[in-house]
Amino acid sequence: MFFDFGIKDFIDILLVAFLLYYVYKLMKVSGSIRAFVGILIFILLWLVVTQVLEMKLLGSIFDKLVSVGVLALIIIFQEEIRRFLLTLGSHHAVALVQFLTGKKKERMSHTEIMPLVMACMSMGKQKVGALIVIERNMPLDDVVRTGDVIDANINQRLIENIFFKNSPLHDGAMVISQMRIKAAGCILPVSHNLDIPKALGLRHRAAMGISQASDALAIIVSEETGAISVAYKGEFHLRLNAEQLESLLTEEG
Known about the structure:
Helix content: 40-55%
Radius of gyration: 23 Å
Strand content: 5-15%
Structural class: alpha+beta
Low-confidence stretches: 99-103
Strand order of the largest sheet: 2-4-3-1-5-6-7
Number of strands: 7
Distance between the termini: 51 Å
Oligomer: single chain
Order of helices and strands: HHHHHEHEHEEHEEEH
């Protein structure tokens, strides 16, 4: 049997390993890693019972559970599945088009980054809460529709005025898309990850939620401490200074 192992078998194992690793990363970001481990254990038990031990009665019970379990998993992990399909349809499709056409994603220039950095530092000193989402490859049209469309150039005074405490839009999130302030007062999905420190408030949870649901980068200015943080790819970068924020935006923005 060992000698029947060919290149197709190697590719098959490699693809399965890659798929499991990708699902593991997706579950880890969404806080469902324990459920993922439980599913893997169940699948291993099913394979041992049906393929190795060849227990017919227990194997038939496991087969029934697996057939019903597929539908149950789709219901339980509908958000993760939706995120996976959106990632395939948006991020990788855009990357493929860029590769075929030779056009690279247009990044934020220093001219757009500095007003954003200065506005965050100013709001941090005054302890004005803010939540700014920067769109990357995955479109945020659904998020934009929940707020008020602005479509203006990135401007420090405009950003500070939007998040001023008496402004009607200061509680929502601002979305920056294609180097422009697209909308403000937007509603973001809130992360239910239990690993988020309790000291972090609702803005941080909303920033983590959008970073898990998309490839967007979210900047948070804490209203309590004035600290500036960034949520990106399901991870927090806490208590950033101006240089660190500028460097992060230059690399990922």
